Amino acid sequence: MTITKRSRIIVFSLSFLVWVALTSISDWQEVILGLIVALVVSLLAGQFLITTEKSKHPVRRLFLAIIYFFKFLWEMIKANLHVAYIVINPALPIRPGIVKIKTNLTKDSALTVLTNSITLTPGTLTVDINPESREIYIHCIEVTSTDVGENTREIGGRFEGLIAEVFE
Amino acid sequence: MIREILGMVFILIGITFDFLGVLGLVRLPDVYNRLQAATKCVTFGSAGILFGVFLQQGFNNFGFKVLVGILFIFLTSPVAAHTIARAAHRSGIKLTAETVVDQYQEDHELKD
């Protein structure tokens, strides 16, 4: 089975499951309409979900993804308290600026997850990404250093290892 | 009973963070800093409110829709923030005077 076909089948099953959960089936017509919608979705956009073979074991990847989710949740709570503290403080203690970090990730999906995580965590917001040189530009609300290596460890390093395990 | 109280607590936390996000939107100096407040606090706040609603509703039809809503907020809000920040920078909107460093500007000047 080709990768595209497998990807389409997975998208079909997922979208049908979401349909069932959203409508809480009470009639056979809803099932048929759900199947049609899932089919259209999987034909239109099914090939984008899985694009390459994964080398690691799926159960291991799922386990790591769950660990990643909780780590991310924790970082996000910290981020919110940090921004809340800055906003409440009458002196408004900010040192804003845009810094650059490097990343070793290559897959589009991995990069998307990394940049979204960076945006949702402490005082950082992804502005742009340069795929050729693998650099991410990040707006920081409190810049601590202008050194690329140090910022890479500080901002990207928290997630990069886990994301590489799950998505590459 | 306990579920309703827990739901209320989450909704209150959510409203608090939404309020702080809006306060940040008013107080912080430029587009980029305001986006920080808008994405973090408002994402977390809205997710908190939705999660509180989910706790009150339980695992039924309505509760599941709320969970899907949380997922979509988490996926879309950072992307929107990134797009706005990038567009603002490209169309030449200046960073605030307190800005310490702008390595994005430096690299793009080198290319041009």
Describe the structure concisely:
Chain A is mostly helical. Chain A is built from 5 helices and 3 strands; from the N terminus they run αααβαββα.
The Cα radius of gyration of chain B reads 18 Å
Oligomer: heterodimer
Q: So how many helices of chain A?
A: 5
Major sheet attributes of chain B: none
Distance between the termini of chain B: 64 Å
Strand content of chain A: 5-15%
Rg for CA atoms of chain A: 20 Å
Number of strands of chain B: 0
The figure for the number of domains of chain A is: 2
The total strand number of chain A stands at: 3
Number of helical regions of chain B: 4
Output mean pLDDT of chain A: 78
Fraction of helical residues of chain A: 55-70%
Largest sheet of chain A: 3 strands, antiparallel
Shape estimate of chain B: elongated
What layout of secondary structure does this protein have?
The complex is a heterodimer of chains A (168) and B (112).
Chain A: H1 3-23, H2 28-45, H3 58-88, E1 97-102, H4 108-120, E2 124-130, E3 135-140, H5 148-167
Antiparallel strand pairs in A: 1-3, 2-3
Helix pairs in contact in A: 1-2, 3-5, 4-5
Chain B: H1 2-27, H2 31-57, H3 61-90, H4 103-111
Can you tell me about this structure?
Chain A is built from five helices and three strands. In chain A, a hairpin with a 4-residue loop joins strand 2 (124-130) and strand 3 (135-140). Chain A has a three-stranded antiparallel sheet with strand order 1-3-2. Helices cover 61% and strands 11% of the residues of chain A. Chain A folds into two domains: 3-48, no CATH class; 63-167, no CATH class. Chain A has helices spanning 3-23, 28-45, 58-88, 108-120, 148-167; strands spanning 97-102, 124-130, 135-140. Chain B has 112 residues and is mainly α. Chain B has one domain (2-111). Chain B is built from four helices and no strands. In chain B, helix 1 runs antiparallel to helix 2 and helix 2 (31-57) runs antiparallel to helix 3.
